[in-house]
Amino acid sequence: MYSAFILTNQSTDKMRSEQPKVLHQICFKSMINWVLDALPSTSFKVVIADSESIKDDISEQTKFVFQKPQEGILHTISQARNGGQQYSDVLIINGDMPLITNQTLKAAYELHTSSKNTATILTATMGNYTDGYRIVRDKHGSINKVITLNKKPSSPAPTYEISPGAYFIRAGQFYSATKAVVAKDNSCNNYFKKIIEYLIKNNEQVGTFNVEDNSELMSINDRQELSLANEVMRMRIIKSHMKKGVTFISPETAHIGGDVVIVCDTIIMPNTIIQGKTTIGKASIIGPNSNVVNCLVGDNVEINCSVVMSSKVGNNTHIGPFAYIRPACDIGENFKIGDFVEEKDSVIKD
Q1: Is the dihedral of CA 84, 87, 91, 96 positive or negative?
Q2: pLDDT of residue 41
Q3: What is the Cα–Cα distance from 241 to 164, expressed in whole angstroms?
Q4: Could you count the other beta carbons within 10 Å of the beta carbon of residue 183?
Q5: pLDDT tens-place string over residues 131-181
Q6: What is the rounded average pLDDT of the residues 196-200?
Q7: pLDDT band at 270 (very low <50, low <70, confident <90, very high)
Q8: 245: left (phi over 0), alpha (psi -120 to 50) or beta
Q9: What is the dihedral angle through the alpha carbons of 262, 265, 268, 269, rounded to the nearest 10 degrees?
């Protein structure tokens, strides 16, 4: 298994935001937490950040290392390393890659270990890049150079092998390479490029794992890219529920959070939002024009043109239209909550 260093100290200038970039949400969950969710539960996870506010958004099981500008990258890496020395490999990944999946990381790591690479770079062949790194190979197909991309390509854009700077690397070589690179330049500029070119110069075996779905390597740098990523994730979530037997009357108007559980034969009507730690039982009808947040909803329930928040709803209960169920309600089975009703902190049972 491997330890994972999630880098979050990227500029937010293009986002035009006072909030750290990785805390912006994709389908109701911050980018950094999508990345953390893609990692194996058994891996040692370290978030390296230059903003303390990120610490409040991640779980207590994830180590947080605050990077002080005056201390440099070498000190930060040494701090991050503490607690994960038993892992033979390290994954370096950016916290602004919310579309990366567990399946891709698993396959990439299997290739990394089976090929006995010192480093394995996650790449995709694409022409719609705006930043990242271009992988350049020699006539034998070996990587011999990394080119930093920092501007939009001409149109039509040439197709290149591109990486956002995510890679697996053997732990020992990573720390020695970091030390050698930092000895020449203690800045974080082009850190990925410097590490990879150091390995190549020292005849270490550097390979790649080509990701079939280019969107998984998408880094979010502005509001437009945030919107594009949100749409990719939204449809990914909806298709996942469809495969499990859930019907969406209007998929283009449904918004479902990544932690939502919906049991088969439930129908999601148009303009419906379901988010948070919500579970919907089987054969229910949710919507249209409804919002359900952090709720436990039973079987054969209908929620019509209503808002239900942080509450329980029993089997065979009908809510709405135009009801507002506020937090801490416990509604039993076989009830009807009628038109224009508002409930808060209520227990409604036989």
Answers
A1: negative
A2: 87
A3: 29
A4: 9
A5: 889 999 999 999 999 999 876 666 677 789 999 999 999 999 998 998 888
A6: 95
A7: very high
A8: left
A9: -170
